[in-house]
Amino acid sequence: xxxxxxxxxxxxxxxxxxxxxxxxxxxxxxxxxxxxxxxxxxxxxxxxxxxxxxxxxxxxxxxxxxxxxxxxxxxxxxxxxxxxxxxxxxxxxxxxxxxxxxxxxxxxxxxxxxxxxxxxxxxxxxxxxxxxxxxxxxxxxxxxxxxxxxxxxxxxxxxxxxxxxxxxxxxxxxxxxxxxxxxxxxxxxxxxxxxxxxxxxxxxxxxxxxxxxxxxxxxxxxxxxxxxxxx
Length: 231
Ligand SMILES: Cc1cc2nc3c(=O)[nH]c(=O)nc-3n(C[C@H](O)[C@H](O)[C@H](O)COP(=O)(O)OP(=O)(O)OC[C@H]3O[C@@H](n4cnc5c(N)ncnc54)[C@H](O)[C@@H]3O)c2cc1C
Hints:
There is one protein chain. The chain is α/β, with parallel strands linked by helices. It folds into two domains: about 1-90, Beta Barrel (Elongation Factor Tu (Ef-tu), domain 3); about 100-225, Nucleotide-binding domain of ferredoxin-NADP reductase (FNR) module (Rossmann fold, 3-Layer(aba) Sandwich). It has helices spanning about 70-75, 110-120, 145-150, 180-185, 200-210, and strands at about 1-15, 15-25, 35-40, 45-50, 55-65, 80-90, 100-105, 125-135, 155-160, 170-175, 195-200, 220-225. The strands form two sheets. Strands 4-3-6-1-2-5 form a six-stranded antiparallel sheet, with helices on one face. The structure holds flavin-adenine dinucleotide.
């Protein structure tokens, strides 16, 4: 389905990450974690939805780069019209997956945030653990919201920060998020559904580490946020 929506508000998440919310036609349905095509006048980008289907709006969250699309996205304001197509994708949870390990790198949090917000709104009782890696402690999209969720649903969060800029809090683990660090925290991770999302290189590296660990994980879903070299 392809349609035109209007921007209802914009939110600066961090200095380099911005969200837009648009109205949602009554006949648009999606599952938490899916993505859409969002069109500017010069082309489109795939963007994961970063809100629950229970919200009245659709939300997309983008890391703003120097590209024409990013500039256009960054300048969107209330009442602007945008063309959207979708939904697409299978990076979603099944009803029988009750114990879940999310692994997110940087902007790869967007589809996972959609699932967690949905769990929070619907008071779900699944058991969630989130491993979330970012470069810097001052550039963590949805940090405050995730901390709120962890007191409202069964969600444990492990944050990994690559660059120790002197503001590392007790809550953070230092260094790049890798599979060995995850296994130390969660030795029985193979008993959980694993949902892994991040820039292409991060997803491929963690899959390789899982492979090298010799363990067999049957239930892994991945989403590659193509188009970024970093987080
Ligand atoms: C399923 C999916 C979900 C995504 N969800 C999000 C999201 O929620 N938030 C977000 O910020 N980004 C998301 N992305 C990435 C987004 O679609 C853009 O690729 C990214 O934002 C870079 O675009 P840009 O305009 O900022 O930079 P550009 O300068 O246009 O792109 C940087 C480089 O990446 C290449 N590139 C751009 N798009 C693609 C592509 N689709 N495949 C391969 N190479 C590409 C360009 O050719 C260029 O070399 C998602 C991508 C996919 C495939």
